[in-house]
Amino acid sequence: MIKASSNSLTARMETLRIAYNKRLKTDFKELDILVERLTDDASNTEYLKLLHSCFHKMAGSAGTFGFQQLGRKVREYESLLSEALKAPQPLHETFPFADWLDDLQTALKADQKSNPSVGIETRQSSLSLEEPLIWLVERDTILQQYLTHQLQSFGFSVKSFSDALHLADNPAKPPDCILVDHHGSQAKALLSDPVLFWQECFKTIDCPILFMGAEESFNARLNALRSGGHGYFVKPLDMIKLTSFLAQLIKPEKVEPERLLIVEDDQDLARHCQSYLEQAGMQVVCLDHPQALFETVSHFNPDLILMDLWLPDISGAEMASLLRQVDRWAHMPVIYLSAESNVHLRHQALLMGGDAFVEKPLDMEFLVRLCQDRVRRVRHLKQTQNQDSLTGLLKHASIKEAIQNHWEYVQRQPQVFSVVMLDIDHFKRVNDTYGHAVGDLVISAVGTLLRQRFRNTDKLGRYGGEEFTLVLIDCTAENAMSMVNAMREAFAAIQFTANGQSFSCTLSAGVVDNHLCPDDGPEALLERADNALYNAKHTGRNRTCLATH
Ligand SMILES: Nc1nc2c(ncn2[C@@H]2O[C@H](COP(=O)(O)OP(=O)(O)OP(=O)(O)O)[C@@H](O)[C@H]2O)c(=O)[nH]1
């Protein structure tokens, strides 16, 4: 948890940058010596390995400290050298090492001139968040401190390790996630078989593991996966992407039961499937009148349809084809249940809009697993389509749909819910003063904070630009006001830094609940929350206003 003052943190970040700049000088001296030696003895493997290791270290850290051009160049040379060193024969190819060094120095000078430094940090806040704990394994101490600050700024608490071997001696609170450099240990075993090393290292650890590293190769990702990693992030780390990924990983979305529609005229078989699938936790509706297809799909909104291939008076393939003609069902997965052995008919059925066949008699365990897998994939696809890439929140159309859907739901199952409109104050000034990229960082920080502070069941969206909409389920306006106020204060406590200057931003919000205005439909509720936001703006900003009836 960060409890330092803003000034001391700013100073620490600056000290880290200066320290890194100094280290680059030493690294370049080392490179100079190596290149000189290689000029005399171009295929000396020891020197080449040392050069590779120097490049590797620089490629992993330069970009993080704002030396983007240097980072890109050194990564390019590192990967050439890495390929050459993998060859079983001694190196036949000779590289223009002296030219490489010149290029790196030119890139360094260009970076030093532009000196782009963008960061974000948090000053002391009286609010104590339930901060998820990240264990960070990074051998490079400067980088370790830098990443720690950045992660803390986004509301994570961090425990750092300089070698993965030290993880085992740690009896303290288990972490929510481990972020580890894939070269994060000096153990010899890591060099000989990295996958085995990491598998051993994490075999008693029960939390997600994210690897990071300078290599952007397929093999680096594959090794991370085989080592038990849930992801691989390339350095320099994109902190916005990383923190957003972490927030999602640690606080996964509540998994709603899979919704399956079975279209089958053999009622015994349909009921048998239904009870099997329901036992596996799915919601199942059976349909035996093909004419009710559209109505049932519209009402039940299934994730997937299991379709008998031969129904009275109509084929399953015709049903699939009819569905495909309606835009919103064009991509709904349809799996045929059939004992049809005629290959031509099976092909026809697939071409008419089915996705797969499951053979009758049905292997129920296989069917359950297939349905789970297909639904997971189709939901993931939907989620990425509905998600705003900068904040990870729902896009405009999806949050509007969420309000509509929830409003309809509470007409059937009465329950209170709140609608909130949020807007960053004087955001135009942020863009005008610090540039659009910094503006984007501020927007994405709102996204991360919202996702950290609200429940998984709440619907959180980016309404547009710097405006956000929340649908808080089972929450009165009074509760919504206090939650939004807490979030507003936490946001105001974030100290952003850009080009050596630091600044903070505030939010205004408008809140309404459906009990306050029982005759309002979803659009009207949204408009009321927006009017309340307008009030907040016009009575001084940095505040939350309740809608008036
Ligand atoms: N960086 C960035 N800026 C955006 C984005 N979308 C909208 N904006 C900018 O957000 C600013 C919104 O400005 P205004 O609507 O005038 O409001 P404001 O400056 O926040 O002032 P108040 O809302 O009255 O406090 C505009 O300058 C838009 O260009 C975005 O995705 N990224």
Automatic annotation (TrEMBL):
<feature type="domain" description="Response regulatory">
    <location>
        <begin position="259"/>
        <end position="375"/>
    </location>
</feature>
<dbReference type="Pfam" id="PF00072">
    <property type="entry name" value="Response_reg"/>
</dbReference>
<dbReference type="GO" id="GO:0004672">
    <property type="term" value="F:protein kinase activity"/>
</dbReference>
<dbReference type="InterPro" id="IPR000160">
    <property type="entry name" value="GGDEF_dom"/>
</dbReference>
<dbReference type="InterPro" id="IPR008207">
    <property type="entry name" value="Sig_transdc_His_kin_Hpt_dom"/>
</dbReference>
<dbReference type="GO" id="GO:0043709">
    <property type="term" value="P:cell adhesion involved in single-species biofilm formation"/>
</dbReference>
<feature type="domain" description="HPt">
    <location>
        <begin position="16"/>
        <end position="118"/>
    </location>
</feature>
<feature type="modified residue" description="4-aspartylphosphate">
    <location>
        <position position="308"/>
    </location>
</feature>
<dbReference type="GO" id="GO:0052621">
    <property type="term" value="F:diguanylate cyclase activity"/>
</dbReference>
<dbReference type="InterPro" id="IPR036641">
    <property type="entry name" value="HPT_dom_sf"/>
</dbReference>
<feature type="domain" description="GGDEF">
    <location>
        <begin position="415"/>
        <end position="549"/>
    </location>
</feature>
<dbReference type="GO" id="GO:0005886">
    <property type="term" value="C:plasma membrane"/>
</dbReference>
<feature type="domain" description="Response regulatory">
    <location>
        <begin position="133"/>
        <end position="250"/>
    </location>
</feature>
<dbReference type="InterPro" id="IPR001789">
    <property type="entry name" value="Sig_transdc_resp-reg_receiver"/>
</dbReference>
<protein>
    <recommendedName>
        <fullName>diguanylate cyclase</fullName>
        <ecNumber>2.7.7.65</ecNumber>
    </recommendedName>
</protein>
<dbReference type="InterPro" id="IPR011006">
    <property type="entry name" value="CheY-like_superfamily"/>
</dbReference>
<dbReference type="InterPro" id="IPR043128">
    <property type="entry name" value="Rev_trsase/Diguanyl_cyclase"/>
</dbReference>
<feature type="modified residue" description="Phosphohistidine">
    <location>
        <position position="56"/>
    </location>
</feature>
<dbReference type="InterPro" id="IPR029787">
    <property type="entry name" value="Nucleotide_cyclase"/>
</dbReference>
<dbReference type="InterPro" id="IPR050469">
    <property type="entry name" value="Diguanylate_Cyclase"/>
</dbReference>
<dbReference type="GO" id="GO:1902201">
    <property type="term" value="P:negative regulation of bacterial-type flagellum-dependent cell motility"/>
</dbReference>
<feature type="modified residue" description="4-aspartylphosphate">
    <location>
        <position position="181"/>
    </location>
</feature>
<keyword id="KW-0597">Phosphoprotein</keyword>
<dbReference type="Pfam" id="PF00990">
    <property type="entry name" value="GGDEF"/>
</dbReference>
<keyword id="KW-0902">Two-component regulatory system</keyword>
<dbReference type="GO" id="GO:0000160">
    <property type="term" value="P:phosphorelay signal transduction system"/>
</dbReference>
